[in-house]
């Protein structure tokens, strides 16, 4: 501290529901009345009394008297309580030891709770015993808690205000707490600022009175530029999840501390441009186009999650150029697509869709004409990736002969046979199923001349991407009867949401199964995806891991403790690593680990350092020519 310019800073911190996630008296009640028949009733009485005192609707002393009377607690219950409270310290307090170390002389715990359980918890963080102000229990000769030390100012109404007045601290005073009694310190003119702490409980009345809301300790430390372990508070990270992504993705990200907005629909380019400005993490499925124009407006965007397999809807290069990492879920819904494909091919070979349509109009047509088993038939799979290969195995189990064609060499599974050309596959197959990806070059890979090569009475399925098939040619071949039946799940133009009409020439053609792009839409697949993708993005935000990203050099990094991790993304030009290290050397910063990976266009460097760094180092690193993005992870 510079004594001439800086004032001493004091931090007045509340204990219950602030330092810890819980109200200690509630916990004590749980322990003391474990087997008591009125346990639940008494607990809710205690909770209500606590709330009334915190909201300022009941005098504090009265609330305390009543709570102790209801409790029937004993000294012997305290060790269990202390153990429990130790496990319930607020997450943001646990992760900011640097703050406690730096300001240990001027952090004061001011609580209406009891020293008997507060001292053992907060001293573990380095808080000095003499800086802990709280009440004290009084016990009878059997160790029963009978009352409290009434001479302690904190047991009085307005006790915190009286205490602060007595302490007469000279300097800047910040109060952090969740209750009305914490606000009263500021109201009495004894603090510069009051922060309503809402990590554990949000009391609207208290937040309304506060100078600011601190969603966690990180936020308080960040806005006041104080020593901390987290460079950027997670509650400032905004997440936008579109297209009805499974709720558990939202929950996972909220648990991480992010602000999450979940929308059921996709957004148009203009809507997305408007929304994306303050978004750090975006989650989409197949219907949101993340164009380069949107990316240009995405100033805060760090990571994109495709909650599906396909990433053709994302301008991956534009994202890469701006240092935005993209992840997808390459396996989570593959089984669901395979099951739908199998089901459809059996239905189509039996003419079931046509029968269903007829039966609904009252027509009974019992016949075996054009109705076949799949056993022994030739299944031609185009695109032998994760889905194609899995389909191959299941189809063989049904007794089908599997052929496949892929543009890259793929290992044939089971007895499958690789075809040398697409033409060969088309000419021999009884059932053709498309499982290629949606890259631009795959537009209309199946068109008139390809249908011409197919056998009469072929079954044709596309569960990959709409634009890979020329729909007019498909319609023509269905109407001519050359194609016995078709299963289509994906379309060149798809409605943005469930309210828009589906418009297609394929409507009303018999023996065609039309499904609304639901190959991967099963409860199991959506749950799997909603676990997989958020985990990848969180791991990137927290630790810099890019393993299995679809557009970034892949780094899988070790976990670190007591170190800072700095992330530098730059254009892949010679000499950047040297420049980074020159800056560290010049500033005598010791590197404990360094990891570099590049691809054709960008380089990704992670540097771990085990000492304090100066802001100048950060500025210099940011200013290296060809830097795309620089971030301190922790
Ligand atoms: N209907 C749905 O709901 C749904 C669900 C999941 C996936 N999909 C689509 O299915 C596609 C395939 O998924 P996957 O997990 O198997 O992908 P994948 O990347 O594992 O496999 C795609 C395969 O197609 C091959 N390929 C690409 N272009 C080709 C071409 N012109 N000719 C022949 N082979 C070609 C690739 O080499 C690769 O082996 C996805 O890209 C996605 O578009 C649809
Ligand atoms: O769920 C979606 O929107 C897309 C499903 C599928 O096409 C995929 O690419 O995984």
UniProtKB/TrEMBL annotation:
Reaction equation(s) it catalyzes: (R)-2-hydroxyglutarate + NAD(+) = 2-oxoglutarate + NADH + H(+); (2R)-3-phosphoglycerate + NAD(+) = 3-phosphooxypyruvate + NADH + H(+)
ACT domain mapped to chain residues: 565-634
Signal peptide: none
Pfam families linked to this entry: 2-Hacid_dh, 2-Hacid_dh_C, ACT_AHAS_ss, HAD
Recorded metabolic or biological pathway in which this protein acts: Amino-acid biosynthesis; L-serine biosynthesis; L-serine from 3-phospho-D-glycerate: step 1/3
Superkingdom of the organism of origin: Bacteria
Cross-referenced Gene3D superfamilies: 3.30.70.260, HAD superfamily/HAD-like, NAD(P)-binding Rossmann-like Domain, Phosphoserine phosphatase, domain 2
Keywords: NAD, Oxidoreductase
Ranges annotated as spanning the membrane: none
InterPro entries: ACT-like_dom_sf, ACT_dom, AHAS_small-like_ACT, D-iso_2-hydroxyacid_DH_PdxB, D-isomer_2_OHA_DH_cat_dom, D-isomer_DH_CS, D-isomer_DH_CS1, D-isomer_DH_NAD-bd
GO molecular function: (S)-2-hydroxyglutarate dehydrogenase activity; NAD binding; phosphoglycerate dehydrogenase activity
EC number: 1.1.1.399, 1.1.1.95
Biological process terms in GO annotation: L-serine biosynthetic process
Keyword NAD included in the entry's annotation: yes
Enzyme class: oxidoreductase
Protein's job: Catalyzes the reversible oxidation of 3-phospho-D-glycerate to 3-phosphonooxypyruvate, the first step of the phosphorylated L-serine biosynthesis pathway. Also catalyzes the reversible oxidation of 2-hydroxyglutarate to 2-oxoglutarate.
UniProt xrefs under NCBIfam families: HAD-SF-IB (TIGR01488), PRK11790.1 (NF008759)
Family statement drawn from the similarity comment of this UniProt entry: Belongs to the D-isomer specific 2-hydroxyacid dehydrogenase family.
The protein's name in its UniProt record: D-3-phosphoglycerate dehydrogenase
Originating species: Bernardetia litoralis (strain ATCC 23117 / DSM 6794 / NBRC 15988 / NCIMB 1366 / Fx l1 / Sio-4) (Flexibacter litoralis)
């Amino acid at each position: 501290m510079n004594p001439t310019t800086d004032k001493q800073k004091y931090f007045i911190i509340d204990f219950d529901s602030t330092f810890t996630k819980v109200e200690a008296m509630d916990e004590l009640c749980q322990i003391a009345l474990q087997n008591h028949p009125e346990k639940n009733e008494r607990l809710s009485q205690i909770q209500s009394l606590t709330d009334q005192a915190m909201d300022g609707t009941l005098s504090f002393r009265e609330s305390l008297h009543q709570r102790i009377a209801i409790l029937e607690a004993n000294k012997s219950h305290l060790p269990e309580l202390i153990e429990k409270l130790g496990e319930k310290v607020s997450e943001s307090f646990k992760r900011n030891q640097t703050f406690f170390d730096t300001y240990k002389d001027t952090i004061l715990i001011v609580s209406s709770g009891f020293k008997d359980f507060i001292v053992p918890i907060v001293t573990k963080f380095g808080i000095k015993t003499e800086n802990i102000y709280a009440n004290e229990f009084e016990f009878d000769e059997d160790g029963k808690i009978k009352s409290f030390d009434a001479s302690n100012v904190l047991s009085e109404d307005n006790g915190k205000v009286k205490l602060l007045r007595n302490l007469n601290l000279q300097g800047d005073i910040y109060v952090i707490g969740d209750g009305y009694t914490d606000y009263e310190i500021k109201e009495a003119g004894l603090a510069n600022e009051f922060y309503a702490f809402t990590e554990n409980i949000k009391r609207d009345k208290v937040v309304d009175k506060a100078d600011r809301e601190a969603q966690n300790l990180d936020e308080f430390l960040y806005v006041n530029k104080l020593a901390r372990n987290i460079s950027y508070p997670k509650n400032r990270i905004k997440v936008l999840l579109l297209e009805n992504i499974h709720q558990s993705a939202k929950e996972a990200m909220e648990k991480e501390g992010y602000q999450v907005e979940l929308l059921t629909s996709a957004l148009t380019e203009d809507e997305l441009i408007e929304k994306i400005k303050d978004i750090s993490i975006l989650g989409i499925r197949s219907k949101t186009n993340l164009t380069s124009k949107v990316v240009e407006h995405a100033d805060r965007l760090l990571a994109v999650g495709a909650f599906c397999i396909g990433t053709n809807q994302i301008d991956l290069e534009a994202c890469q150029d701006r240092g935005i990492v993209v992840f997808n879920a390459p396996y989570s819904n593959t089984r669901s697509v395979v099951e739908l494909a199998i089901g459809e091919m059996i239905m189509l070979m039996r003419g079931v869709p046509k029968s269903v349509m007829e039966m609904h109009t009252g027509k009974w047509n019992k016949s075996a004409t054009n109705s076949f088993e799949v056993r022994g038939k030739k299944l031609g799979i185009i695109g032998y990736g994760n889905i194609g290969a899995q389909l191959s195995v299941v189809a063989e189990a049904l007794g089908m002969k599997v052929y496949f064609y892929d543009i890259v060499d793929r290992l044939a599974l089971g007895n499958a046979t690789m075809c040398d050309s697409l033409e060969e596959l088309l000419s021999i197959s009884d059932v053709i199923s498309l499982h290629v990806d949606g890259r631009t070059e795959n537009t209309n890979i199946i068109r008139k001349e390809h249908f011409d090569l197919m056998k009469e009475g072929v079954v044709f399925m596309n569960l990959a991407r709409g634009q890979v098939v020329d729909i007019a040619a498909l319609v023509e071949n269905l109407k001519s009867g050359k194609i016995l039946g078709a299963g289509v799940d994906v379309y060149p133009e798809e409605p943005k949401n469930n309210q828009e009409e589906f418009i297609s020439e394929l409507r009303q053609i018999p023996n065609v199964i039309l499904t609304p792009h639901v190959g991967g839409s099963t409860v199991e697949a959506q749950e799997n995806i909603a676990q997989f993708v958020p985990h990848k993005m969180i791991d990137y935000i927290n630790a810099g891991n890019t393993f299995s990203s679809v557009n970034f050099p892949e780094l899988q990094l070790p976990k670190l403790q007591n170190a800072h991790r700095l992330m530098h993304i730059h254009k892949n030009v010679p000499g950047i690593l040297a420049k980074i290290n020159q800056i560290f050397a010049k500033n005598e910063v010791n590197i404990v680990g360094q990891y570099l990976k590049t691809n054709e266009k960008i380089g990704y460097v992670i540097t771990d350092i085990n000492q304090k760094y100066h802001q100048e180092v950060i500025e210099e690193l940011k200013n290296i020519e060809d830097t795309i993005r620089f971030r301190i992870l922790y």
